Amino acid sequence: MTRIAVINQELCKPKKCNYLCINVCPKNRSGEECIIQDKETNFPIIDENICIGCGICVHKCPFKAITIVNLPEKLKEKPIHRFGKNKFVLFRLPHPIPGEVVGLVGSNGLGKTTALAILSGKIKPNLGERKHADLSELISLYRGTELQNYLEKVKKKEVKVSYKLQRVDKVPDKYTGKVSRLLKRTDKRGILSDLISRFGIEDILDNDIDKVSGGELQRVAIAACLAKDADIYYLDEPTSFLDVFQRLEVSKAIREFCKDRSVLIADHDLATLDFLADRIHIFYGVPSVYGIVSSPYSVRSGINAFLDGYIKEDNVRIRSKSITFGSSYIQSTRGSKIMIEFNDIQKKLGNFSLTVKKGELYDREVLGMLGANALGKTTFAEMLAGKLKTDSGKIKGKVKISYKSQYPHTDFDGTVRELLKSVTKEFGTENYKSEVIRPLRLDKLLERKVKKLSGGELQRVAIAVSISQETDVYLLDEPSAFLDVEMRLYLANMVRRLAEKRECSFMIIDHDLLFLSQIADRGVVFLGKSGVEGFTEKPTTVEKAFNNFLSKVGVTFRKDPQTGRPRANKFGSKLDREQKETGKYFMS
Ligand code: SF4
Ligand code: SF4
User: Fold this and answer.
1) pLDDT digits 0-9 by tens, 180-216
2) Cα of 437 from ligand 2 centre, angstroms
3) Is the dihedral angle over the CA atoms 46, 60, 3, 318 positive or is it negative?
């Protein structure tokens, strides 16, 4: 197989286009049957052996349903699994290793979930397009590797898998009742009570599942996953909605409770993976079209290769530019005009009280806000947005604010195109395409139903809705949740460009330190006791804010000499001790 043709059946509407692709294909016009109508489904089918990859059908399809790609030349091997004709195809598998944490990095839609379904025996791999392939064939492909033994166990149905799903916000759709009821069902190892206290979820055990926050749901879901007795634990994006403290606590618990088991973790927070994983597999390819799993790397080389965008063993460049870190990558555009000034704000909500010290936001500035969950960041954002009143203190500045809430959610019953059209008259203009549609990679989502979008897709749409408003200040609450690393970078670039072009400002609440270090001019740290009391210090440089925050967390970061990315030091390592002694918790 050298060429892959994929038709997205959610987008394909043959009745509306009258099979335009079939009519325009030059191979069809010369008498061959390159694209035909499937008699059973009525969707078109492309024969990849006849197709010459001219791309005419791709450009002519009015619903952008077709993707045609050439595979890397070196890739001569059989696929592991294909979901059917002109559907997603996966090459190779990650290697779970008992006693090791294996990190999976790469964009969404490259087959991480499919790989796990195969490793857990839920999907029988078909090695291409044949049905009912025997697992022995797959085992022979991996003879002599760690995977051989593992797959033999899968064949004998001896592998037990515990899975933490990606969209924790969907948990209430599956389970009802109290948190304690859900957790008790999973308690098979006698470690549940330990997990509950370490994750700080004792106080929500009597709450109904649909009444707990995203961060709480995430910790409940991770505790439920680890409490099960399994050979392999798969955690799909365990860091979304968790603050840095919680990310560290979860990392430590995984290390401790899965010492002799296999763990696979797919996540986009490179700092957490760096801290937690023993090895890395990179997933690359074209999302929803094909995915290739790299050989296992050491953590540092794997993350650096991913950021560099070059997979040496396959001689493949996975993106045109390397991702590098540091102030020179995204230039600051901060101006000198004060847009908003806030001074000694006090707010009490139930038993929680918030105090915000004096601070200001400049024009064209990106102000990062960081700190543990439940310290009042969202409350502060809502006061700035005018959704909540202050008890005392002043917010000065007559500015309009557009607010993207923490959890992307919508009841909109229509397509992405219809939603965006309903919020801005600019939709369809060249300016809107270059400012919003292209940077957020929304072209292929426009005809999709909003209710059917994945977490990352919905997040991009929610950001688009927010920045479609013409305002002075954009407040984005956890915009990186569910976004992959590349998308976080595109977002950082987009925010910078908008700040300069529209002469507006951004306030960004986020827990991904790498993302914040890329995007922010200055930072505000929220300190205090979660759920009880929160207070801020004056906005400072990003470096000072990170240093202040990390000193409270007790974690040090150094700078990777090759990529400039901040890397978490292992607890108690020489560097960790040295940096703590000199008070340099964050080396930028
Ligand atoms: Fe029409 Fe595109 Fe579907 Fe072909 S793939 S039938 S051009 S919608
Ligand atoms: Fe036909 Fe060209 Fe489309 Fe291939 S890429 S199916 S040859 S139109």
Assistant:
1) 998 988 888 889 999 999 998 988 899 888 888 888 8
2) 27
3) negative
Q: Tell me the domains of the chain and their CATH numbers.
A: 3-70 (3.30.70.20), 81-160+230-312 (3.40.50.300)
Ligand 2 closest atom vs CA 21: 8
What the block records as the tokens of 306 is 């991913």
- H-state helical runs in 185-327: 192-198, 214-227, 244-257, 270-276, 299-308
Low-confidence ranges of the chain (pLDDT < 50): 327-329
Say yes or no: CB of residue 61 within 6 Å of ligand 1: yes
Joined together, the tokens standing for residue 261 give 């088991």
Given this model, what pLDDT does residue 98 score? 87
Task: Please tell me the distance between residue 18's alpha carbon and the centre of ligand 1 in angstroms.
Answer: 8
**Nearest protein CA to atom 8 of ligand 1, as residue:** 12
Question: What is the rounded distance in angstroms from the CA atom of residue 147 to the CA atom of residue 190?
Answer: 30
Helix, strand or coil, per DSSP, at residue 581: helix
Give CA torsion, residues 509, 512, 513, 514, to 10 deg.
-120
The ligand placed nearest to the CA atom of residue 50 is: 2
Spatial neighbors of 198 by CB under 8 A, at least 6 apart, are 249, 252, 253
Q: Which residue has the tokens 């908003």?
A: 340
217: which 2 tokens? 């749901």
Report the half-sphere exposure of 15 (CA within 13 A, side-chain side).
Answer: 1
- Answer for the pair 509, 478: CB distance below 8 angstroms, yes or no: yes
- For a mutational test of ligand 2's pocket, the pick from 51, 67, 69, i.e. the residue with the most ligand atoms closer than 8 A to its C-beta, is 51
pLDDT in the model for residue 168: 83
The answer to whether residues 291 and 110 touch, using CB atoms and an 8 Å cutoff, is yes
pTM: 0.84
pLDDT of residue 219: 94
> What average pLDDT is seen over the chain?
88
Distance CA 201, CA 197 (A): 6
Tokens of 443: 């072209």
Ligand 2 neighbourhood includes 53 CB (under 6 angstroms)? yes
Residues 331, 493: contact at Cβ < 8 Å?
Answer: no
Helix (H) or strand (E) holding 493: helix 485-501
- Tell how far the Cα of 83 is from the centroid of ligand 2, in angstroms: 21
Helix (H) or strand (E) holding 45: strand 44-46
Structure tokens at 177: 């009742």
Query: Would you state the structure tokens that stand for residue 119, as one six-digit string?
Result: 């490793």
pLDDT of residue 306: 93
pLDDT at res. 328: 40
Using alpha carbons, list the distances in angstroms from residue 450 to 131, 172, 461: 33, 19, 8
Expressed in angstroms and rounded, the spacing between residue 283 Cα and the centre of ligand 1 is 29
Distance (Å, whole) CA 308 – CA 551 = 30
Q: Is the dihedral of CA 441, 444, 446, 452 positive or negative?
A: negative
Rounded-to-integer distance, Cα 250 and Cα 194, Å? 12
Dihedral over Cα of 117, 276, 145, 74: its sign = positive
